[in-house]
Amino acid sequence: MKTFLTFLCCFFTVAFSLPAQTLLEGYVRDMECCGISEAVVTVMCPDTREVIYSTQTDTTGVFVLADVPRHFLLDVASFGYKPYTCALDVDSCMGNPLHITLEYISLDEVTVTADGKPRMVRSGNKVLIDKLGNSPHAQGSDMYTFMKFIPVLNVPMFSGEVTLRETGKNAVLLVNGKPVHIPMDVYLKNIHVENVERIEVVANPMGEYKVNGTDGVINLILKKREDEGIQCNLSLNDTQYGGNSQGGTFSVSYTRNKAFITSGINVGNSHFKFEKKVDYRYEDTGRRMLEESDMNNRSQNFSGYFNFDYEASKRHTVGVQASAGGYRQDDESLILSTYSGYGSVQVDSSYRSASNVYTPDKFSYLSGNLNYTFRIDDKGSMFYADADYRMTRPNAYTHHVYDRTDVGGNADRTDNLQKVKTCIDTYGVWLRYIKVFNPGTRLVSGLSYYASGTRYDYVYESLEDGGYVNVFGQSNRFYLDDRTLSANASLHHSWSNHLDMSVELAVHFYGAEGEQEMTGESFSRNEVNVLPAFRLAYDPNENHALSLNLMSMVFRPNYFDLNPFRTYLSATSYRQGNPELKSARVYSTGINYTFFKDYSLNASVDCWRDNQAFLTLPDGEGFIRTMPVNRGSSCLVNWGLDIDKTLFHNRLNLSYSVEGNFVRFKNALSYMDRIQDSFSWGTDFRAMALMKHQWTFIAGYGYSSHAMSDSNFQPDRHMVDFMLMKRFRHSNLSVGLRKFFRKNDKDVYYEQPGYSYHTFMKQYWLAYASFSVTFGNSRTKTVIDRSNAEVKSRTSRPVK
Predict the structure, then answer these.
(1) What is the pTM of this model?
(2) CATH number of 254-763
């Protein structure tokens, strides 16, 4: 650590002492102070308008001029913006970067039909994707479908979170730099490509965005309508998997003068059916338990959100975000458990358990956010401030009826009711400051403080004399208060147009206190985590890009993991938290090499300490207990190859990926083998074809081999899926099928000396259908396709 801090100090000293540029620099930005890339900057003689030379802005809107005459005309042109021409003098410009703001051209919506691709360029630690309308897949597409054609993203066929191919890790969805209040896939299916200006993909944010841990960022920059009015988006979906589920999202955006409002509602009705069998074997005692279950899960959820942004001036913007929602659960299960001797067909006893889990209250959460943005200068320096509050009330009741029959035919019944009421209140502030020294150097610093209070009431009642009576010793109350103070600073520097480096240091101060009301037992936790990170990116030319990432992370248990109460799942099993559970620490190294834009190689090594695993084991009292424990340490080595090819003028897209994993566990638990090794691999292939009349057909195949995780093992699995989509001018309709194949429907299992279990779950075909449409005001600040000749022809006009 001492060596790293010494290097950090030296790096800051060298970076800030770099000699100043003697060239004439400038910035080209739009009305929202965002850089305009590939704007044509032309230097001309003021008298004859003869072109001396032309250059273009980079991905951040920066240009550099050299060898200009003392007096000259500067003409700036970019697709979709009004022309800009002015007379300049070198003496007045030296030492002061030029700041040029281009105004939008008001255009009706234009449909791009050329065979092309969105432009994708790397800028430091970001991948910027714009000109989305160049793609033949853009018209009528929602963003979730469109992202399947972006090679740096990994998008599931029907639903689920989008991940980053470069790291293989999850990503947080932001819109104009702010979080969304509904699931990522739901939001992306509700917004159309025509409303998105560009996409920013950041594999390692390093404090630049409001995200935590290892998450990457997908930031959508929306187009802003210059005229007043309402635009609406509607998406509907239906899923069949053992049962039928429906969902829908309706959102509205409204622009008036300097105010921008977005709001929406999301509703869902889910019904899933599961048939499951678990075979528990106790080799040490010669016993066996077979558990067969039939479950029907039904739920309804609803949520709504409201975002308001007001541009008080060119430099000051204030915003308000609010969301609320609820959840109604009604799960029914029937479980039959039989006990016998190991290897015997004679049943000793059996349990029949009927249970119903339901929510007494529909309302479950409320959140609010106040935010302020200050554009400090025209170089891009920014200050952000956020104040957050979130209220969560995940309450649930569970009704169990147990019927036990022994070998002699004697029977008895137990009827109980478990009531769980949880109150969680979280509040905090987050400050972030970005200082841009020059186009290639910026410093990002942040400070945040978040605290939460959890009150967990658990009531266990048994049916006696026609009524439910509280069972003494079973009911309890658990309090947990925790807080985190975090500070971080990161320096991002471009040594040249081809070499970028980022270095970060984050410090987290964490404290927590927990207490059981009934027993009086209490515990406290205090941690100080120092988390350095480093990134180096080298792009020798447009066909090759190499990056190296080093980072460390910490994963802390939440109240549910620490809660020591028993929550009974059936007559023979329960779940219990572990107040002694330690935070897990991971040190990660990753290398990514992208070549010829279509091929990507990546490799990583993750070293874990105090792995957290949810183990399902016998508790010595005749029950099966699931509890989180610190398993020990592990080392995971991962490698992968991704290929994404576009053929026949972008009408056929083929993607293929293969990855391998080797993991070694060093177990610290006495009932597990000391050393366990596992090698696994997987592959995925997907073909996407654009057919006539805006039809698109997608087919995929995936395979994953036997693998070992922290808590169990997974067997081999095959997967096939298909989707057919029809795109209209402002809408799309899609249908699809998916099926997982496993030998004998074998699911997760666990094997250690003296004890094992195997799970079998019936696999159904999944059928999916969705519809998405946008309507209302469609006059946006759109970028229309023009030729360079047309843009440069403006240089022949006289100066006004």
Answers:
(1) 0.79
(2) 2.40.170
